């Protein structure tokens, strides 16, 4: 599709624009029946510009966020980090299997000792190697009886990942309106800066855009 359709159409679009020095709607004067193609190109470019400028806004935000001596995404000691899952490196963990154990008691145990886990669910919990002694002491039995004979490498969430999702994007836990929260001010300002740059780049017409 790219070779037989995408690239030929792109080449035709660039060639027509360069040859005629006209916009996408005026260039089809030589064949008015294709005028709708030019209108579709304008609409498509508008949609692409809207969503792509959001990506530029992310770039603007990270640019200004990086103008500090200590980058905010290089540590797990921030309010947006999950102290249970945030990790700067891979760590050795194993799964404790609570199948057959009272689920309420298991969840209560996991919740009250969450600092010892990097992940948990209704019937299992992932325990880092350096916490397994504390966990087995609290369980009152050996970890192998809960299906933890071996350890495997698993990373929690990185500091940069949590910075992006929990601070930069402020992602909601679900899609319900009650979880939407407020307008993300720093991204709104970054998006405004991006649109200001676009405005001043194109204010003198399409011929000035190639110089930016």
TrEMBL record:
The protein's name in its UniProt record: Amino acid transporter transmembrane domain-containing protein
Signal peptide start-end: 1-17
TM region(s), chain numbering: 33-64, 186-203
Keyword Transport assigned: yes
Keywords: Disulfide bond, Membrane, Signal, Transmembrane, Transmembrane helix, Transport
Pfam families per UniProt: SNF
Membrane-protein topology: Multi-pass membrane protein
Coiled-coil positions: none
Localization: Membrane
Xref: PANTHER family: SODIUM- AND CHLORIDE-DEPENDENT NEUTRAL AND BASIC AMINO ACID TRANSPORTER B(0+), SODIUM/CHLORIDE DEPENDENT TRANSPORTER
Domain of life the protein comes from: Eukaryota
Listed GO MF terms: (R)-carnitine transmembrane transporter activity; alanine transmembrane transporter activity; beta-alanine transmembrane transporter activity; branched-chain amino acid:sodium symporter activity; neutral, basic amino acid:sodium:chloride symporter activity
Cystine residue pairs: 76-86
Gene Ontology CC: one annotated term: plasma membrane
């Amino acid at each position: 599709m790219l070779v037989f359709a995408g690239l030929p159409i792109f080449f035709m679009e660039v060639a027509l624009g360069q040859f005629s020095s006209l916009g996408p709607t005026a260039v089809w004067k030589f064949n008015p029946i294709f005028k709708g193609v030019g209108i579709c190109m304008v609409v498509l470019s508008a949609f692409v510009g809207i969503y792509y400028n959001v990506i530029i806004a992310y770039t603007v935000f990270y640019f200004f966020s990086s103008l500090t001596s200590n980058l905010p995404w290089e540590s797990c000691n921030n309010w947006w980090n999950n102290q249970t899952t945030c990790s700067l490196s891979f760590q050795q963990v194993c799964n404790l299997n609570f199948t057959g154990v009272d689920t309420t008691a298991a969840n209560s145990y996991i919740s009250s000792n969450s600092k010892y886990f990097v992940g948990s669910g209704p019937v299992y919990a992932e325990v880092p190697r350096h916490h397994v002694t504390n966990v087995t002491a609290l369980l009152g039995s050996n970890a192998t009886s809960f299906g933890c004979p071996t350890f495997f490498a698993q990373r929690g969430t990185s500091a940069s990942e949590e910075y992006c999702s929990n601070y930069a994007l402020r992602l909601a836990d679900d899609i319900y309106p009650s979880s939407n929260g407020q307008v993300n001010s720093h991204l709104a300002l970054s998006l405004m800066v991006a649109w200001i740059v676009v405005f001043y780049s194109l204010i003198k017409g399409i011929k000035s855009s190639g110089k930016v």
